[in-house]
Amino acid sequence: MAEAGFYFVGTANEPDLARCYYCRRELDGWEPTDVPWDEHKRRECPYISLNKTPQDITVEEAFNLEAERQCALLKKAADTVVGKFREHGQEQKQKIEDLGCVKQKRARRKKRY
Ligand SMILES: [Zn+2]
Question: How close is the Cα of 87 to the center of ligand 1, in Å?
Answer without folding.
Answer: 29
